[in-house]
Amino acid sequence: MGEILKIALPNKGRLSQKIYELLNDAGLNLDSKDERCLKLETKDKKFQLIFVRAADIPNFLDSKVADIGFTGKDIIVEKEIELDIVKEFSFGKCDMVVAIPEELNIEDVSQMPNDIRVATSFPNIAKNYFKKLGKNAKVSEIMGAVEITPSLGFCDCVIDITSTGTTLKSNRLKIIDKILSSSTVLCARPDLEAEKQIKLRSLIRAIDSVLDAKNKKYLMVHIPKDKIEEVKKFLPGLSCPTVIPMHNDETKVVIHVTVDEDKVYDAIDNLKSIGGEGILILSVDQMVK
């Protein structure tokens, strides 16, 4: 069985649930998780899941308590811990921005005073940012509700993450610069043992197969044998179709193809128009390339 691969993931929130479901779909065979559960092993004893704060995941990897982890790219940059980012995901996207009160007559960071007061949950990023600008900013670390601090007179600007900018606008803040873009990433210890690297590669392959199958449908249809080329015109992905002869009808074949979910009904209409019959549509759990 070998060494168990320890995976750190956020302990709460929508991101935690999304990653948990992704791992389950990838074949880890996880039971329903109790909110109070902070550690569990898969049924095959190959993986152990550790549920911690997303902001602490780089530290857990650095101390070798965990081998790999799911967290935000922004958090890794902030922690300044050397980790290997092995996969980036399309979910959990956000931008780290500089925002100031709307009433301030400042449109560019170069117009900020030298001794500007800054509130942020990312003090290292903030200090490095203002150092590059040549400003002696006073950076205060605030864990949560950063957007309200300028209206309380605590600071002159904030550095915070945002997905839509709605929360900043509701607190009468305007964005004057973007520091970085972030999304959910899977990271690993740079000194990960060879055996665990093999398990990691297998896990990534399984995750990719789930993501590739998302929003796909598996379509099977009986069509006249002489219509195969015509099918290719409205299903461009059918460059090399899986074609199976019919047992009792030499004039027809069975075609198997994967179709984008939003194109299924158009595909059905087109298939029916050329004599397609016995159309079967199935969900796709995984697609291994």
Q: CATH class of the largest domain, please?
A: Alpha Beta
User: Using only CA atoms, what is the Rg?
Assistant: 26 Å
CATH topology of the largest domain: D-Maltodextrin-Binding Protein, domain 2
CATH architecture label name of the largest domain: 3-Layer(aba) Sandwich
The CATH superfamily of the largest domain is known as Periplasmic binding protein-like II
Distance N to C terminus: 26 Å
What number of structural domains do the residues give? 3
| Mean pLDDT level | 90
Cα shape: extended
Provide the structure class: alpha/beta
User: Could you state the oligomeric state of the chains shown?
Assistant: single chain
Total count of helical runs of at least 4 residues:
8
Q: What portion of the residues fall into strands of 2 or more residues? A: 25-35%
Spans of 5+ residues with little confidence (pLDDT < 50)?
A: none
Instruction: State the total count of DSSP E strands.
Output: 15
Strand order of the biggest β-sheet: 2-3-1-4-11-5
Report on this model:
Helix 1 (14-28) packs across helix 6. The protein has three domains: 5-91 and 183-213, D-Maltodextrin-Binding Protein, domain 2 (3-Layer(aba) Sandwich); 94-182, Periplasmic binding protein-like II (D-Maltodextrin-Binding Protein, domain 2), CATH 3.40.190; 216-283, Alpha-Beta Plaits (2-Layer Sandwich). The chain is of the alpha/beta class and 289 residues long. It has eight helices and 15 strands. The radius of gyration is 26 Å and the shape is extended. The chain has helices spanning 14-28, 57-62, 73-79, 123-133, 166-170, 194-213, 228-234, 264-273; strands spanning 5-10, 39-41, 47-52, 68-72, 84-88, 94-101, 117-120, 138-141, 157-162, 173-182, 184-188, 216-224, 242-245, 252-260, 277-283. A hairpin with a 5-residue loop joins strand 2 (39-41) and strand 3. Helix content is 28%, strand content 31%. The strands form three sheets. It has a six-stranded mixed β-sheet with strand order 2-3-1-4-11-5. Strands 8-7-9-6-10 form a five-stranded mixed β-sheet. The mean pLDDT is 90.
